[in-house]
Description:
By secondary structure, the chain is mainly alpha-helical. It is built from twelve helices and no strands.
Amino acid sequence: MVVFAGQGDPRSSLSLLWRAAAPQPTRGGPGPKPRLSVDAIVAAAVALADEEGMGALSMRAVGDRLGRTAMALYTYVPGKSELVDLMYDSVHAELPSHYPEPEESDDGWRAALTVWAGDLLEFYVRHPWVLQVSQARPVLGPHEYAGLDTLITLLRATGLTAGAVRRLVGTLFPFVRGSAQTVADARLAAAATGSSDAEWWAARSAALTELVPDFAERFPAVSRLEAEGAVEPYPDPGLEEGTEAVPYPEREARETFRAGLGVLLDGIEAARARRP
């Protein structure tokens, strides 16, 4: 399920996002206005999406949480499209807006970007529904812009050109989003399917071995990589005593994220070295 932002009326949506003016009633019957607010509606919608996913989001469901009808919500928010924009921008306020400013002369930019990427990953994992809001069209809200401004500030410390920084922004955000999607999916898979990852792999590995006995000959590169870079097998052996129990697939996803981020940062370092 992919949701595209900015489908509501531009002026109405941006006025709500930036709180440029008090929202005017758009629909609803006569009588006294319910004692609600845009912030209360957005908070209820975020809680609903966090608990039940984007598929459960509707004006009626949010109204039920607030003890109001959907029509009462329309007095403050024109519709679901505008609500999604408000939700998306609202949760981005959780992201740190400032990191220690690294000096161009040292590798402080690398440490800062590592922390930034980790913070963003955890943010997406806390709110996996955010990953369903496409970045093809930004929300253009204040908190979304604050997050962008933070990343640009960190990348400027690398000393790379404005053009290079722009391309890196377009690389780092999708990389972290993709990694977070893998972590989120790893968390949801067992509950959604009714079988653990260990059970799933055991059943399919046995069937694949039986049905494709020449697998190694047909896919030599895959087989060689599995043999030379084998990972710990299922069932999950768990973690060291005293550490938090994180399922094996999520640990793998997080380790892949760290390795991939390291390669990206190595690339930035190489680009810096090529500067005139």
